[in-house]
Amino acid sequence: MAPPPSSLSPPKIPMELHEINRAKLTKSLRDHLSLSSRPLKGFVFLQGGEEQTRYCTDHAELFRQESYFAYLFGVKEPDFYGAIDIETGESILFAPRLPEDYAVWLGEIKPLSFFKERYMVSMVFYTDESATVLHDRFQGSGKPLLFLLHGLNTDSNKFSKPADFEGIEKFKTDMSTLHPILTECRVIKSEMEVALIQFANDISSEAHVEVMRKTKVGTKEYQLESMFLHHTYMYGGCRHCSYTCICATGENSSVLHYGHAAAPNDRTLQDGDMALLDMGAEYHFYGSDITCSFPVNGKFTSDQGLVYNAVLGAHDAVISSMKPGVSWVDMHKLAEKIILESLKKGCLLVGEVDDMMVERLGAVFMPHGLGHFLGIDTHDPGGYLKGATRPSTSGLKALRTSRELQEGMVITVEPGCYFINALLIPAMESSSASKFFNCEEIGRFKGFGGVRIESDVLVTTDGCVNMTKVPRKTCEIEAVMAGGPWPLKKSSNYSENGGES
């Protein structure tokens, strides 16, 4: 009898998670104010996301809450505001006052008591009461102080939007204190946050395996995307994806952010292609980010195996080395070095690997950073603390963080090796780098594309835990694509080289 399509079901969402997040922020903010000899008075005040329509039409885009607001309040509806009283720790939600015809078109208009109970906050009022409520609750002289969210996201290079409302001129506002403190709160995950990220990983891992099994020559890249999205929604209740799916095959797998509107996962899979599938589901705001690379026809060629094992070696070495106190820059360099050593062993490169590292040759084959923080956003914030200097050398400047690892961080490990003409040709023509290339051997990889292997990893007290559960060894991939179970059973009829025994 065939196994069920999924062994998973969506877990209950604990709203206590957001109570913990609010308490964590309140403590951190109080500590900061105390050290600065500032009074422990005022309100954290955030504006939630607003519903958007498609350009000038009345087509409402599927709403997803603004991430900082989601972190603190867990509210899934648009047009809310939220406040935290720094002195008491009490939380306040402000809900939009909906028109009567909302009930006709969009369903029952919930009373304020519904949101108080659902989101486990101290009190709920309407948004048009914000100024009055906050003034009434302020125990002090002069204008009440609002700590507003405004700061730079070092991944997007965009600024968060500070709250704005009618009557804000009656308050004092602080635009600089909150953002770095709240961002740092998001860097270290609680047990409840980790559990949601783990479920997003579990259902996404299961979906990746399902796609791997159904991949065959002649299908379209978008069919692979569709299979993934169906599985995570059907069995995991994941209406949102963490990011636009990258379903790249053949030469497309060397396009790092393939899958965008101008390259919409629409190629037909060919015999001899490598597939690079970067897809992750989101559950209650918390995401996953997983990349699997494998041969479309289910069997690795020697060239495919060479590149794949180079990347897998880097992936495994980094995870084996991760623990609190380890520099992420050093982990990136470790991944580069292992990939370069493997390419030299495969005769694509010649010379001393240490000299290649000085020349920054690793960036030719892996131009992106090793990984990034993961949580409510795929590229979770906090990669660069205020005042931190981003590395400026080739390859390292693409790192999304240069921090030392800490217990409770969740970070992706995603080394890759790509054959990108825009990088390879200038390097092979460079007076300082050309000596490292075996041009004849590298010529075999024209049109190869690339390989990326990405797992989501939790840093623990003395090491780390890989939260992603997909086939990684070539023998595992070949066995699963040939119909074998996953996880592989010890009594499996598949030998270590992937063939039937």
Automatic annotation (TrEMBL):
<dbReference type="InterPro" id="IPR007865">
    <property type="entry name" value="Aminopep_P_N"/>
</dbReference>
<dbReference type="InterPro" id="IPR029149">
    <property type="entry name" value="Creatin/AminoP/Spt16_N"/>
</dbReference>
<dbReference type="GO" id="GO:0070006">
    <property type="term" value="F:metalloaminopeptidase activity"/>
</dbReference>
<dbReference type="GO" id="GO:0006508">
    <property type="term" value="P:proteolysis"/>
</dbReference>
<comment type="similarity">
    <text>Belongs to the peptidase M24B family. Eukaryotic-type prolidase subfamily.</text>
</comment>
<keyword id="KW-0378">Hydrolase</keyword>
<keyword id="KW-0464">Manganese</keyword>
<dbReference type="InterPro" id="IPR036005">
    <property type="entry name" value="Creatinase/aminopeptidase-like"/>
</dbReference>
<dbReference type="Pfam" id="PF05195">
    <property type="entry name" value="AMP_N"/>
</dbReference>
<feature type="domain" description="Aminopeptidase P N-terminal">
    <location>
        <begin position="13"/>
        <end position="157"/>
    </location>
</feature>
<keyword id="KW-0224">Dipeptidase</keyword>
<keyword id="KW-0479">Metal-binding</keyword>
<dbReference type="GO" id="GO:0030145">
    <property type="term" value="F:manganese ion binding"/>
</dbReference>
<dbReference type="Pfam" id="PF00557">
    <property type="entry name" value="Peptidase_M24"/>
</dbReference>
<dbReference type="InterPro" id="IPR052433">
    <property type="entry name" value="X-Pro_dipept-like"/>
</dbReference>
<dbReference type="InterPro" id="IPR000994">
    <property type="entry name" value="Pept_M24"/>
</dbReference>
<keyword id="KW-0482">Metalloprotease</keyword>
<comment type="subunit">
    <text>Homodimer.</text>
</comment>
<keyword id="KW-0645">Protease</keyword>
<protein>
    <recommendedName>
        <fullName>Xaa-Pro dipeptidase</fullName>
        <ecNumber>3.4.13.9</ecNumber>
    </recommendedName>
</protein>
<dbReference type="GO" id="GO:0102009">
    <property type="term" value="F:proline dipeptidase activity"/>
</dbReference>
